[in-house]
From TrEMBL:
Main location: secreted
GO CC annotation terms, alphabetical: extracellular region
UniProt xrefs under PANTHER family: ENDO-BETA-1,4-GLUCANASE D, PUTATIVE (AFU_ORTHOLOGUE AFUA_1G12560)-RELATED
EC number(s) stated in the UniProt entry for this protein: 1.14.99.56
Reaction(s) this enzyme catalyzes, per UniProt: [(1->4)-beta-D-glucosyl]n+m + reduced acceptor + O2 = 4-dehydro-beta-D-glucosyl-[(1->4)-beta-D-glucosyl]n-1 + [(1->4)-beta-D-glucosyl]m + acceptor + H2O
Native organism taxonomy: Eukaryota, Fungi, Dikarya, Ascomycota, Pezizomycotina
Protein's recorded name: lytic cellulose monooxygenase (C4-dehydrogenating)
Cellular compartment(s): Secreted
Domain (Auxiliary Activity family 9 catalytic): residue spans on this chain: 18-237
Keyword Thylakoid found: no
Family per record: Belongs to the polysaccharide monooxygenase AA9 family.
Cofactor(s) it depends on: Cu(2+)
Enzyme class: oxidoreductase
Length: 249
């Protein structure tokens, strides 16, 4: 009895800081996201269901730090591996993402932008190598200067859910969708920002022909970018959005 209690204590410590997308929707249709249960099942030799969401080890403190911007982890989180399935989304359609924080609390970080990216798989996304994916930014919201309200606050007000639109002009094909929150509450100090990226395999359908070129994960962000090394505790009038130029499709 005593040992199982201390094991529970250890597990509770492990999951305290996590944040992950447990559910997502395509044009309002529910899809299974990645659950921490799957991490423990895999670790214990159990089976993990086939889903379109990527496996990732969003454990310990639960985020990718600027010190890891030069590593594969910035793509789709730590030790990420593609989901086995791919879900169909029509160009112009929407995807919504529900973020679960530890103990199903509201998302704890109300300061920071929310971004979404697409990367062409050039083949089956279940075999994608995250270090080869070139990301195109398709959605980025920072702060509303008139209300001083961050995208993260909008997410919390909307039941921890964010909706992005697939550009109508994007060429059909297989893509990894990368959705990300960047928490800035500690970003006033070097390496204090917290990136929470999550990935999903999708097949975009339609008749668009835009094939914008993307940016490798390791080139997306720099620790000293003024939107990453950023003090949020003041009136904000000019937030420089990190990452490459937004694709306006
Ligand atoms: C928020 O979304 C989650 C996931 O879909 C759902 O389980 C929960 O009931 C929702 N809560 C509210 C207050 O709508």
């Amino acid at each position: 009895m005593k040992s199982s209690v201390s094991l529970l204590g250890a597990l509770a410590t492990v999951v305290v800081g996590h944040g992950l997308v447990t559910d997502f929707w395509i044009n309002g249709q529910h899809q299974q996201g990645f659950l921490l249960d799957y991490y423990y099942a895999k670790k214990n030799g159990g089976t993990v269901p086939d889903i379109a969401a990527w496996y990732a080890e969003n454990l310990d403190i639960g985020f990718v730090a600027p010190t890891e911007y030069g590593t594969a982890a910035i793509n789709c989180h730590k030790n990420a591996a593609p989901g086995k399935l791919t879900k169909t989304v029509p160009a112009g359609g929407s995807m919504s993402f529900y973020w679960e924080a530890a103990n199903k609390q509201p998302w704890p970080h109300s300061q920071g932008p929310i971004l979404s990216y697409l990367a062409a798989c050039n083949g089956d996304c279940s075999k994608a190598d995250p270090t080869k994916l070139a990301w195109v930014k398709i959605d980025a919201k920072g702060i509303d200067y008139s209300t001083q309200r961050w995208a993260s606050e909008d997410l919390i007000a909307n039941n921890n859910t964010w909706t992005s639109k697939i550009p109508a002009s994007i060429a059909p094909g297989n893509y990894v969708f990368r959705h990300e929150i960047i928490a800035l509450h500690a970003a006033g100090s070097l390496n204090g920002a917290q990136n929470y990226p999550q990935c999903f395999n999708i097949q975009i359908t339609g008749s668009g022909n835009a094939k914008p070129s993307g940016t490798l994960g390791t080139a997306l962000y720099k620790a000293d970018h003024p939107g990453i090394l950023f003090n949020p505790y003041r009136t904000i009038t000019d937030y420089p959005m990190p990452g490459p130029t937004l694709f306006n499709g």
